Amino acid sequence: xxxxxxxxxxxxxxxxxxxxxxxxxxxxxxxxxxxxxxxxxxxxxxxxxxxxxxxxxxxxxxxxxxxxxxxxxxxxxxxxxxxxxxxxxxxxxxxxxxxxxxxxxxxxxxxxxxxxxxxxxxxxxxxxxxxxxxxxxxxxxxxxxxxxxxxxxxxxxxxxxxxxxxxxxxxxxxxxxxxxxxxxxxxxxxxxxxxxxxxxxxxxxxxxxxxxxxxxxxxxxxxxxxxxxxxxxxxxxxxxxxxxxxxxxxxxxxxxxxxxxxxxxxxxxxxxxxxxxxxxxxxxxxxxxxxxxxxxxxxxxxxxxxxxxxxxxxxxxxxxxxxxxxxxxxxxxxxxxxxxxxxxxxxxxxxxxxxxxxxxxxxxxxxxxxxxxxxxxxxxxxxxxxxxxxxxxxxxxxxxxxxxxxxxxxxxxxxxxxxxxxxxxxxxxxxxxxxxxxxxxxxxxxxxxxxxxxxxxxxxxxxxxxxxxxxxxxxxxxxxxxxxxxxxxxxxxxxxxxxxxxxxxxxxxxxxxxxxxxxxxxxxxxxxxxxxxxxxxxxxxxxxxxxxxxxxxxxxxxxxxxxxxxxxxxxxxxxxxxxxxxxxxxxxxxxxxxxxxxxxxxxxxxxxxxxxx
Length: 613
Ligand code: SF4
Hints:
six-stranded mixed sheet, 20 helices
């Protein structure tokens, strides 16, 4: 919510009805009584009114009463595109990504109709409309976050009511026909439909006596939000469900379940057949596809299940030597490694932008020369509240990369997507940068498929050419870096010295005399991302980051925490030194991401016998 500015959507929606009255009490009974009293008025607009029917209770986002006509509005930060509304699928069914939102409205309407059966009710979802552009800058600066301990409150600027509020930016989508579908077909619970009044009564009865509802595990458990992070001392909801249903023990969890298999589409089928353990996968379940020198998805899956074939095991890893060598021969020195940090917030920062349009606020750039020299060559970070960073970002990137024709590396396609977005933005804004044409040509040279300088995706290369048992089949940079570090003697020798951020070693903009290869006591290197753990507090704030909470779960390296940190810089009233701490942490994390790419390439080069050393 913080990262996406989702809380702002609710506050902006309220500004559409300046006469609205907020029911502030968090006490259910008090809120109900106040709602009841205010609904005695002939006309009223209520925010957060409380409605109850038996044991069913809801706080409605916005309820508008006009005589016997009511409008019930549920405000969501989910993006909506009015130019291509996608609520129903091709067969006329509710699309899965919209279903839970419609079900939410249906539940509230069910309570409302039960309480006031004779009322004429219309229901709506209100969502940021990606088809619309804001006409004023700084709209989201009207809503600031104030933190008190672990609680955050949204403070709306008193000027907001007088500001020219963009009424277009939130779409009001009528949902009556869709909630009728829910009333008719039922709520969808793990692939099964249940009649709404029956299932909510069943759940509310269980809730009342604090009785656990029997879990129905499936492939959705791969993203279970109740997993405990190792060492945090909390109970693990995932293990509880899977132990209760399939009697798995700790050893089974360590060995892995079908949920752990990389890009495996047959999880639900195997789970339905009760084949849960990795060892229960049979040859017919995954057809092995041979792609010659490179690793196919199915070969990667079988390596996870059966282990690396002994004859091909290089010591806990497998590497596509010839394929890697051929790919590396296509690269041109100096190598440029880049990584972007971006943010997509619901309410745009700047006039002319659409909701959820990406903001590119940071990059890091490492260089590797033909003689093996490495340097952290450049970085960009723009977090102030006034400047729209994207064009300055593109300009700074051009200044970094336009001196030569060296290969530009990224990890996954995110960087390409962002550069394509910036091209679109340059072409659509009223006041493009002065050198717009040059800038667009430069950006296109990096993003055009098949172009001479098309950016090279190291993540894809990792998927095709490297498997390490410790990665559990995963290919994120955070999993790949420690795996390559533990396989490469070259990396061990080089980075077990404090050479990083040293004039005689590798130049760095944010580190001094840093040792990245640190033995964890059993000959395996500590995860370099863990070495940055102390800075996670600076990024997220003391209250979001708890010492019991391994930052692993916050996916800092995937950009989640960076985007959250950026939102903090935008929406919290921070003192100068707090801003500086957050910015310093952002710079370190981004630098490690591009250094990680450098180390992975250095490690692979050694493993295929092509290193400089
Ligand atoms: S493991 Fe998690 S996702 Fe799966 S049923 Fe249990 S709580 Fe739900």
